[in-house]
Design brief:
The protein has 143 residues and is α/β, with parallel strands linked by helices. It is 30% helix and 32% strand. The protein has one domain: Rossmann fold (3-Layer(aba) Sandwich). It is globular. The two termini are 19 Å apart.
Length: 143
């Protein structure tokens, strides 16, 4: 069967890979192992370029190196959302009271892009089977 893979990059990294030795996951190899009888038609990787924090100024450099490695996979396409960083006031955890200013980072657009590609490709009969690599409950309805 012809398979398309839809990878929520941030969800995969922060949910399964970050604290492991597998941060440099070969997604194409994983797909071949997980779907041995199927033809991997296309892998779509959804992400956003990070805004590095002062505590980790090399974060964007590491991400770009990984994305360059992903670009070497012939049937893999990277689809970008965007990344927001802004300061907000948040309540302190008990037993303390009051608020503190924190830096909030959010990745935007990747789950919507993934859902749209999944549905559009399905409508175009681009796959016989679709695999979504995510743990984002926002994707439940399109799946």
């Amino acid at each position: 069967m012809k398979a398309n893979i839809y990878v929520d990059g941030f969800n995969l990294y922060y949910g399964a890979l970050k604290s492991t030795p597998y941060r440099w996951l070969d997604i194409a190899k994983l797909c071949r192992i997980m779907l041995p009888p199927d033809t991997i038609n296309q892998i779509k990787y959804f992400t956003a370029l990070v805004n590095p924090r002062r505590s980790d100024p090399d974060q964007l450099t590491r991400q770009r190196i990984y994305l360059r490695a992903l670009h070497t996979i012939p049937n893999l396409e990277i689809i970008y959302g965007h990344f927001l960083t802004h300061e907000i006031m948040m309540p302190l955890a008990p037993p303390k009271s009051g608020y503190a200013k924190v830096i909030k980072t959010e990745e935007k657009g990747s789950d919507v892009n993934l859902a749209l590609h999944l549905l559009s490709d399905g409508y175009k009969n681009a796959y016989d089977v679709a695999v979504v690599v995510s743990n984002d409950s926002d994707l439940l309805l399109p799946i």
